[in-house]
Amino acid sequence: METVLNFIQNNLEMFYVVILSIFLGIEVISKVPSVLHTPLMSGANAIHGVIVIGAILVMGNAADDNYLAITLGMIAVIVGTLNVVGGFVVTDRMLEMFKSKKKPVIQKDNQPAK
Amino acid sequence: METSILSVCYLIGSVSFIVGLKMLAHPDTARKGNLVSAAGMLIAIIATLVLSQSGGKHLHNYGYIAIGLAIGGIIGTVAARRVKMTAMPEMVSIFNGMGGLCASLIAVVEFGRLTEGYTVLHLLIIIAGVFIGSVSFAGSMVAYAKLSGKMKDVTFTGQHIFNFVVLGAVLILGGLLVGGCFATPVVVFYIVVALSLLYGVMFVLPIGGADMPVVISLLNSCTGIAAACAGFLYNNPVMLTGGILVGSAGAILTVLMCKAMNRSLKNVLIGSFGKSNGAAVPGKQGTYKEVSISDAAMLLAYAHKIIIVPGYGLAVAQAQHTCHELEKLLIDRGADVKYAIHPVAGRMPGHMNVLLAEADVSYDLLLEIDPSNEQFPTTDVVLVLGANDVVNPAAENDPASSIYGMKILEVWKAKMVIVNKRSMRPGYAGIENALFSEPNTSMLFGDAKEALQQLITEIKTL
After folding, report:
1. For position B413, which CATH number holds?
2. CA A73, CA B106: separation in Å to the nearest integer?
3. What is the pTM assigned to this prediction?
4. Which of B249, B331, B405, B437 lies at 20 to 30 Å from B234 by C-alpha?
5. A13 & A45 share domain
6. What's the domain count of chain B?
7. Which chain B residues touch A45 with a CB distance below 8 Å?
8. Residue B176, in any domain of the structure
9. Which of A21, A51, A59 is the closest to B99 by Cβ?
């Protein structure tokens, strides 16, 4: 029990960050129109690619003779980068399609003006 | 000094994730939002490379890191650029799995590095990270294999009990490991990793059909939590905020999807949705009538109010542009044309919106499920393009059906329904559709793109 309390006390800032982030995530997402659900999922997918920083830290701190850490770290960096880069590029491709929003307005010019 | 700059960079990264997600919530700013998040990510990664210190020393092994970043970057860009719009869900699933694998590997390395004097909670976070990361990785790979048709739903008797036992074993072994109950914790740790991977596979294996989007969203959320665990481990705020944000966002998105399908999450995870029941046996279907292209063209050309219901068939045939062409043609002829978009039509929520947006279809023409259902009774012709489960009346009137309770588009209330399908085969959820035998329904067999092209040609001659 004391360990747990000490842990919370020592990492109080972390706990605040976690709890506030949870509410923030819910708040931000609940306002997204269904049109954007797929790109949003993909965008969020890219953001959790931030895990690649952990992989970089693993590699960067691995001792030169720790081949297990270097090998696993290498794979981790590769797949983490794949997550980040692929995620953002795929999201951008999806959203690219939303840019030509003005065209439909021109199309409706046969309707009577207000 | 350097540490302070690093902290500021992480702060910028975290804020950019929040702002980016916020901007993704509006169609006008969505693309910029994605770029904002990407920029924040770039800043955080570069800052880590240049400024991060451990015990007064900078990082080393830069060569290996650079190679890793280059390989991942190139493969990621090429894969994301080349993938077809129809295969987007699979792609997202793969990328998600990669994130999970990354989290899992980090936890494995960190476990190997544990020295005397670590805290119990430190160990707990490592084990949580490896469990969630592995489940997310294995699950995403199965989800990918299923979505791309490389794997079928697998069910066997006692499956839920088996899964439950595996999950229980992971939790118990993990708990004992944290408690320090083993002489050789490394062996037990690897057993936990193996069981977590197994659980990831087993967990997604029975889930099929229309529930796949929910699973991907859930796994997305899991990877976020795994990233947050690693952030905790390294006391790294940008990983923590990014991971938790995605974790909670993914969770809420999962709930929204379940709501759209009128199913509880528990139901999705426990009930194997895609399992075909007796009614799915081909040949048992009722009678249906076919309509020729010219008759269908005639019906559409002289209808005043038309609603198009797109589904996965439209995506497979890449017929969104042709569909838009038909819609323009009909509007030019004076008809009122709308699209009824079911939230889970296709393979992912919003899949249809993305496809139609690609073809420049105006937002105002897209109706959501409730307004659509209000419109159907006054509609002359409903054109169903490769949609099946989302227009299946069994969801309303057959309690035995596996999609019973799902909110659907009540297309049969319109005067005429034309259903374009490639064949009479049941839809993705593997169940028969009574709509096809309704007296006001006509079937127009064929590839959506070809059928639409023929319709356009016919209507132009009328």
Report:
1. 3.40.50.1220
2. 7
3. 0.78
4. B249
5. no
6. 2
7. 92, 95-96, 99, 220, 223, 246
8. yes
9. A51
